[in-house]
Amino acid sequence: MNNQNPEKEVLDCQQRHWEKMYAENIDMFGREVSYPALRAAEAFGEGNSKRILELGSGQGRDTLFFTRHGFQVYALDYSEEGLKAIQKKADAIGASGSLTTIYRDVRRRLPFDDDFFDGCYSHMLYCMALTTPELEFLSQEVCRVLKPGG
Q: Which of 21, 96, 121, 136 lies 20 to 30 Å (CA to CA) from residue 86?
């Protein structure tokens, strides 16, 4: 471990873990949409949200659900293998036009303009090995890229 920044090393190790897991099992968490995504889609629909940021999209079981329900989804993940799986699945169901995949470490500034998204969704990202300051930074970034009332 890097003694100068052990928190960074922990998350970097997690990233390598997910690359391996996603490469070995194309549907690691299943194909069915998660309950949190069902609830989020309801809230997004009620709020007239169209453009959604998904943080930690994994292999896309929720991502694809959102695209099939009329949302323009920007799926952000720290695993290239996961993003490749999402894109392949989106291509197979004709949802590529509603999807943008982005490889990103959420400890860095989000690559979007202020007030860009109508909504933001994350199922498991906030459970990863992020420090409190990193989570606070990410939350500030989410607020920055969300439209007022998003």
A: 136
Mention every residue, 6+ apart, whose C-beta is less than 8 A from residue 57: 63, 75, 76, 77, 82, 83, 86, 101
Q: How many residues can be counted in the chain?
A: 150
Cα 125 from Cα 55, distance rounded (Å): 7
Assign 1 a pLDDT band (cuts: 50, 70, 90): very low
Which DSSP letter does residue 42 get? Answer: H
pLDDT in tens, 101-138: 999 999 999 999 999 999 999 998 888 778 899 999 99
C-beta of residue 64 within 8 angstroms of C-beta of residue 95: yes
- How many whole angstroms separate alpha carbon 80 and alpha carbon 23? 10
The CA R_g of the chain, rounded to the nearest whole Å, is 15
In which element (H, E) is residue 14 found?
helix 6-24
Query: Which segment, 8-12, 24-28, 31-35, is predicted with the most confidence on average?
Result: 31-35
Which residues, including other chains, have CB under 8 Å from residue 27's CB and lie 6 or more apart?
59, 61
Cβ pair 25, 59 in contact under 8 A = no
